[in-house]
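Throughout this chapter, every protein is written as a compact record of paired, labelled lines. An example of such a record is reproduced below:
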Amino acid sequence: TLDSDWEWTEKGACTWRCMPGRAGLNCEPCGDDEWSEGLFVGGKFSANVASQAEGSVPFASGSLGSHCPETTAGKGVVDFGELVDKHCFQNINDDTYGNENSWIPQSGAGPYFVGIAFPGARTIHRVEVSRDNLQKDSAAERRAVFEGPQILWYTTVANPDHETPDADWTKLVEISRTVNGVEGVDFDPVLATGVRLTQTWKEGATDEVKIFGVEVGCYQ
């Protein structure tokens, strides 16, 4: 079994390779080491791979025109200078909670989505979606986010963006909520180059989407 004091090591100098499942870590031997099949709790997981600080790039179907200087679909981080950038899609992965740093979809007909392209393929296993995590909005404003679930999709195409066809996206999980704050959902690990969050309603702000990856390595 894996003891709590076992250390994480680089590939090539290890006994076990582990990846998270729904109930813990699924582990197998590295090389020809003998082992007993089982499910082990513990392990090492990566930071938020969707963060701009990690090199990930946001994209979306558009942003709310009454607040964001740029309303059209697009991809990339934009410096709006002294202009107010409240509710722009560039806020979705800036590691900043709160309504002032949130995304609201464009006015008019959908589809409505916001996404994040990773700097390369990443193995991911958890999503956290935040709505007004600083709890500063009025109750009336907060209720707008509860008009339906948001759906998380992933893709394996290179450099995904707002023009990546629907056929290239695979559904991962639905995210529903009844209270403000962060809603987190675990799922079986998948290899992805990006994710997108879709919804059928245009009211309500999402201030942050975080995706947690898996560092596949070994224990000794």
